Amino acid sequence: MAKVIIGIHGLGNKPPEQLLEKWWKMSMIEGLMLNGHSRRIPRFELVYWADVIHSSPLSESETDKNSPCYIDEKYTKAPEDFHAENHDTRKKVVSFLGKQMNRIFLNEDLSLNYSSFSDTIMKKYFRDLDIYYKENCTLKTGQTAPANEIIRGRLAQKLEKHSKDRIMLIGHSMGSIIAFDVLSFMTSHINIDTLVTIGSPLGWPLVISRIADEQKKITGSVKHLSTPPSVVRGWYNYSDILDKVAFNYKLSELFKPNSLGISPTDILVVNNYMSYGISNPHKSFGYLRTPEFSELLAEFTGSGKMTLGRKIVQHTGNIIRNMGKRIGVQKKQTE
């Protein structure tokens, strides 16, 4: 049985599929190297759906920052001077507000209160999600269908392709919603070894109510949501406390175990992604190189820790690169 990692991206327009897939893979390999693991990973494939909603991808050649195709957050290596601050107070506040938010917006049957208010918020700030739930899309092939049907179909097709493999499925942001929907309602017959959600909005009352509504159409009633039945080894949910999309990050309090006893394991991490000096704690590249995710990835691949010899080579290379940077800075200062 071969191992395969399947990723599905999140909200917003994206660079072309091959480039985004390359950047995801580079992020995972960087994390493995930085955290002392072998950088070998199994086959990786990205489920790309940005073209369902956006007519043209973002472009590396676009230099106009005002253009809708300009990439303002490319893959960048981890900053050497990133400083993680203490957010213990924020953790307490976020935990409290998350519980209160669910009590206010969700009824006992998981239907949504104040739906018109929620719809307004979704249309204004999360347009892709609004389209996913409510609109039809027409592809270049001329195919017209509900957006969520087209997008889910792409992931389902990929999972069917690898149904005999050992699968790690990674869903970032809205991708985690798509992954949950497909595993719950379309491909429950395909075993998923490890489900990973990063920067996930699955804790939002709006999302919970949408999933519950779809489940009610199948079972008639819903008292709680559960881990998809096909997840057989673990569900790991990684969140940065500063990630606003993953605001209600304690999925273990919202999703019950499946029949195999698998429930979400919530793990707070520090997402160190920065672009042009501005941090983005929601960016996929930062999540994919965190020590916590790298540990899980190394365990899945079975590659283990680097040998002493490889660690020495990597450490020496880091020293040489740092020396080169210092020399460059000194030259600029003397010019």
Overview of the structural elements:
With 335 residues, the chain is an alpha/beta fold. It contains 11 helices and 12 strands. It has helices spanning 17-34, 50-53, 88-105, 115-125, 127-134, 147-161, 174-185, 205-219, 284-287, 291-301, 308-334; strands spanning 3-8, 43-47, 136-138, 144-146, 166-172, 192-198, 225-226, 231-239, 255-256, 264-268, 274-275, 278-279. The longest helix has 27 residues, at 308-334.
Give a brief description.
The chain has 335 residues and is an alpha/beta fold.
What sort of overall outline do the alpha carbons produce when their principal axes are compared? globular
Strand content: 15-25%
- Runs in which pLDDT lies below 50 for 5 or more consecutive residues are 306-315
The radius of gyration over CA amounts to 21 Å
Helicity level: 40-55%
Which structural class matches the secondary elements? alpha/beta
Number of DSSP strand runs: 12
Count of helical stretches: 11
The sequence of SSEs as H and E is EHEHHHHEEHEHEHEEEEEEHHH
Separation, N- and C-terminal Cα atoms: 59 Å
Average pLDDT for all residues? 89
Largest sheet report: 6 strands, parallel
- Strands of the widest sheet, in order across it, are 2-1-5-6-8-10
